[in-house]
Amino acid sequence: MGAPMATNLARAGRAVAVWNRTPAKAQGLGAEVAETPAAAARGAEVVGIVVTDDQAVESVLEGPDGVLAGPGALVVDMTTTSVGSKRHSAERVRAAGGRFVDSPVFGSRPQAEQGALWAVVGADEADLPAAEEFLGPLTEGVLHVGEVGAGAAVKLAGNLLLFSMLNGLAEAIALTEAHGIDPDLLLEAIGRTGFRSPYFDVKGKQMMEGDYAPRFTVDNAIKDLRLIVEAAGAVGLRLTSSEATKALFEETSAAGYGAEDMTALARALRRVD
């Protein structure tokens, strides 16, 4: 995700410096390659963060060579993390004299390559113009949903719906196949209903073609589902369907498909691989 985003910023004429814990992945993006997060942030007006999880964000910000070791700037964290992580990061950045925007994005690598992500932003009103200018080359739109932490909550709620749709689609295809029916007919039938969805069309086609090339992996989905269940528990909710979906993704990973795309859910459900 981060690589095409950096490329799109550079193509838009921005002066971009990048850091990646795997240096080879930072090459060829049209950007200066920095040796540390602090070096990448030095002199920047905006620092964008796109990493894997809460712990990675904390390391990039607060490690010995972290962003907080450099001068203050507007930090835009686009990682899907917990609400608590966003609020903690905001406190640390503000204490160091910077500003913080909580801005996870909807979309995967194809949308990142096309500059067609959607950002849900939790931020102070005063920080919105600078955040929107930064996010412009990366997104089709920016929706302000509240203060820091609100962006994370909306992203997790959106992912909850996404994973539930994918789980239901995989199970529907498995059930259709088990009865000896071509699942193309299932998708055709769904396409004529009021609950048709472009997402079903795209992911259904990938499942039936055995296309498991990673766009968003099973293991990344498990990480997000864990955050969803934890976010619900923090406010006294129990999301039983999300817990069941998380269990199915975990079974898929345990079967050896953790590094494959989420479409591998259907692979794990099939009676014969």
Structure description:
This protein is mainly alpha-helical and 273 residues long. The protein has two domains: 145 residues, 3-Layer(aba) Sandwich (Rossmann fold); 117 residues, N-(1-d-carboxylethyl)-l-norvaline Dehydrogenase, domain 2 (Orthogonal Bundle). Helix content is 52%, strand content 12%. The protein is built from twelve helices and eight strands. It is globular and about 65 Å long. The two termini are 29 Å apart.
Question: What features would you highlight for this structure?
Answer:
273 residues; mainly alpha; Rossmann fold; N-(1-d-carboxylethyl)-l-norvaline Dehydrogenase, domain 2; 2 domains; three-stranded parallel beta sheet; three-stranded mixed beta sheet; 12 helices
How is the topology of this model organized?
Elements lengths: L1 H10 L5 E2 L13 E2 L3 H5 L4 E4 L4 H9 L11 E4 L5 H13 L3 E4 L2 E2 L2 H6 L2 E6 L5 H8 L3 E8 L3 H29 L4 H8 L7 H12 L8 H17 L5 H18 L6 H6 L4
Parallel strand pairs: 1-2, 3-4, 4-5, 7-8
Antiparallel strand pairs: 6-7
Helix pairs in contact: 3-4, 7-9, 7-10, 7-11, 10-11
Helix and strand content put the structural class at mainly alpha
Q: Tell me the series of helices and strands, N- to C-terminal.
A: HEEHEHEHEEHEHEHHHHHH
What is the name of the CATH superfamily of the largest domain?
Answer: NAD(P)-binding Rossmann-like Domain
What are the segments in which pLDDT stays under 50 over at least 5 consecutive residues? none
Q: Could you say what the CATH architecture of the largest domain is?
A: 3-Layer(aba) Sandwich
Query: Whole-Å distance between the termini?
Result: 29 Å
Q: State the CATH class of the largest domain.
A: Alpha Beta
Oligomer: single chain
The average pLDDT value, as a whole number, equals 93
Helicity, in percent?
Answer: 40-55%
Query: What's the CATH topology name of the largest domain?
Result: Rossmann fold
Radius of gyration: 20 Å
The strand line-up of the biggest sheet is: 3-4-5
Task: Tell me the number of helical segments per DSSP (H or I, 4 or more residues long).
Answer: 12
Q: Determine the strand fraction and express it as a percent band.
A: 5-15%
**How would you sum up the major sheet?**
3 strands, parallel
Q: Write down how many β-strands occur, each being a DSSP E stretch of 2 or more residues.
A: 8
- What would the principal axes of the Cα set say about the shape? globular
